[in-house]
């Protein structure tokens, strides 16, 4: 099985093929979008369009599968009627009064059609009115000659983004020695929860994936639709300026050319800011060569020709929490957050973990994997508090290079315990009931082993070691819980770094992250096609929901093909 591709492995999974093929699902079709019990019905009584599920009887013809896309299959496999009250709430509708809107489900499907095809709004609306796509318009619920405008599509995204956190509910993230942080709960996550629920109801997720869940947060940088003018832009750059209260220039504070903000173009906002993407920020993740006319050019000539390693990104950061299925070898996004590009990830990442019990009360968390950006106390503590294994890459510190200090502090630069005489401990398994990893020295000093860090003035083997006696059959035994004995948590892990188990869990998480990135690349979303943080946020949540739905369709197609 190890040498098989993911598709081949799933085709040999009898339960997957029997339960998830069209024939196994037929009695359960359509899969109905779940409506949470606390969501009220949509207050609107009439719509300019009206979605009604149309059957997927054409799927019974094997020849039809050859020309149906994943999006086409979703329209036939899923009844989206239950999504209507959820979208109505997320759009901020509280009354039947006012204009007669389009059915929010119709708009959701139209947005999804645009996303998965990588179209512009103009092309999407042109295709909606084209007789060649009349079958799509009918399935979306649009009447002939009555379709939304580009402004209507923009408004749909803006409202979704604005009302995602309007309920004001937060999750409290505790920080050692600092005030706790309140992170807003994003209720656009209900879209992801609904898609994941459909995948579970279809039997696509293996039971092990849910009962021993392995999740990974991984931020992805997304370029804003606006082109960057100044890398130092911040909130104050969008505030009015006047002679009595001049606007500060963060670029000049960094010894850059910046802007004097002394022209009419700078009165309301700095002319080098991007008002259409006022929430976007700049970050280096790989390099850039700025032209001399850029406001980011250093004022010090000595620094003029210095170049940073890396590539620039001016925009936003999408932070999903992905669930990896190691048996069926695919992933789904469980939850997500949306940040400015320069925001750090450990606090919102911890907040996502703490929200799992709210959105997925029956999910049994086993391991959390992530890169070194999550290797901070606040995130590692949250993982440990939830009873999961910490498979987070190591965040280095200058003290790690001083080997002489390893025996003093009790561990090396990879979190492996080291005894006072410089010998490395051996891993001996994780005690899940006590949530601690067991290490032992094995009396390595008596078996000819070389010390990892030889200590000056010590005659080896060191006779003064109290764990050489026969009553200590395994030598010194050390149980590592949340922290090391000195109180440090930075390198404390529940799986030995670099071990086979570590590599398996960590690489699985990285593969899931790369697969999501590839989907966004394929849909041309690495540079967002919409202006403004609210629209960008809504679009990214919609994209994650549609990525899960397309995965559902793809796996059903695979299972059905395996039966023929």
What do these coordinates show?
The strands form 4 sheets. Strands 5, 6, 7, 8, 9, 10 and 11 form a 7-stranded mixed beta sheet that branches. The protein is globular. The chain has helices at 6-11, 14-20, 22-25, 70-77, 84-90, 104-117, 121-129, 134-140, 150-162, 189-201, 207-211, 250-253, 346-359, 377-385, 406-409, 500-522, 533-562; strands at 31-32, 78-79, 170-175, 178-184, 213-217, 220-223, 281-284, 312-325, 330-340, 365-370, 389-392, 426-431, 436-440, 477-480. The model is unreliable at 287-293 (pLDDT under 50). It is built from 17 helices and 14 strands. The longest helix is centred in the last third of the chain and has 30 residues, at 533-562. Helices cover 31% and strands 14% of the residues. Helix 6 (104-117) packs across helix 17 (533-562) and helix 10 runs parallel beside helix 17 (533-562). By secondary structure, it is an alpha+beta fold. The chain has 3 domains: 6-168 and 531-562, no CATH class; 174-223 and 314-396 and 501-517, Nucleotidyltransferase, domain 5 (2-Layer Sandwich), CATH 3.30.420; 398-492, no CATH class.
């Amino acid at each position: 099985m190890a040498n098989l591709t993911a598709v081949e492995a799933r085709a040999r999974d009898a339960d997957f093929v029997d339960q998830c093929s069209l024939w196994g699902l037929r009695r359960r079709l359509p899969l109905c979008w779940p409506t949470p019990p606390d969501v009220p019905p949509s207050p609107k009584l009439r719509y300019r369009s009206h979605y009604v599920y149309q059957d997927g009887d054409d799927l019974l013809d094997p020849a039809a599968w050859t020309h149906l896309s994943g999006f086409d299959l979703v329209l036939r496999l899923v009844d989206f009627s239950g999504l209507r009250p959820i979208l109505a709430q997320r759009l901020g509708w509280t009354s039947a009064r006012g204009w007669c809107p389009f059915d929010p489900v119709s708009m959701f499907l139209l947005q999804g059609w645009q996303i998965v095809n990588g179209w512009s709004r103009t092309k999407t609306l042109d295709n909606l009115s084209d007789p060649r796509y009349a079958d799509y318009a009918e399935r979306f619920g649009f009447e002939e000659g009555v379709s939304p405008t580009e402004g209507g599509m923009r408004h749909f995204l803006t409202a979704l983004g604005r009302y995602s956190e309007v309920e004001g509910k937060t999750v409290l993230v505790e920080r050692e020695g600092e005030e706790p942080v309140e992170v807003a709960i994003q209720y656009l996550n209900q879209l992801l929860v609904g898609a994941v629920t459909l995948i579970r109801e279809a039997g696509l997720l293996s039971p092990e994936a849910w009962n021993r869940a392995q999740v990974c947060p991984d931020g992805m940088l997304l370029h804003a639709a606006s082109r960057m003018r100044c890398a130092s832009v911040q909130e104050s750059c969008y505030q009015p300026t006047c002679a009595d209260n001049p606007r500060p220039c963060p670029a000049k504070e960094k010894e850059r050319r910046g802007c004097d903000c002394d022209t009419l173009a700078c009165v309301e906002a700095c002319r080098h800011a991007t008002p259409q993407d006022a929430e976007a920020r700049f970050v280096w993740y790989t390099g850039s060569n700025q032209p001399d006319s850029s406001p980011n050019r250093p004022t010090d000539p000595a620094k003029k020709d210095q170049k940073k390693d890396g590539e620039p990104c001016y925009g936003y950061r999408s932070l999903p929490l992905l669930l990896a299925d190691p048996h069926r070898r695919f992933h789904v996004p469980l939850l997500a957050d949306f940040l400015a590009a320069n925001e750090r990830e450990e606090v919102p990442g911890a907040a996502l973990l703490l929200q799992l019990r709210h959105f997925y009360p029956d999910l049994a968390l086993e391991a959390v994997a992530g890169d070194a950006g999550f290797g901070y106390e606040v995130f590692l503590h949250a993982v440990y508090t939830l009873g999961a294994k910490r498979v987070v890459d190591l965040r280095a510190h200058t003290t790690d290079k001083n080997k002489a200090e390893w025996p003093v502090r009790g561990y090396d630069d990879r979190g492996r315990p080291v005894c006072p005489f410089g010998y490395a401990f051996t891993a001996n398994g994780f005690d899940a009931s006590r949530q601690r990893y067991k290490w032992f020295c094995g009396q390595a000093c008596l078996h000819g082993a070389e010390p990892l860090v030889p200590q000056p003035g010590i005659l080896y083997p060191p006779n003064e070691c109290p764990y050489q006696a026969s009553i200590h059959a395994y030598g010194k035994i050390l149980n590592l819980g949340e922290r090391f004995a000195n109180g440090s948590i930075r390198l404390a892990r529940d799986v030995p770094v670099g071990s086979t188990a570590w590599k398996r869990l960590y690489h699985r998480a990285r593969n899931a992250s790369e697969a999501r990135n590839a989907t966004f690349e394929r849909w041309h979303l690495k540079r967002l096609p919409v202006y403004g943080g609210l629209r960008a946020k809504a679009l990214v949540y919609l994209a994650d929901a549609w990525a899960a739905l397309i995965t559902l369709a793809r796996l059903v197609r695979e299972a059905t093909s395996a039966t023929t």
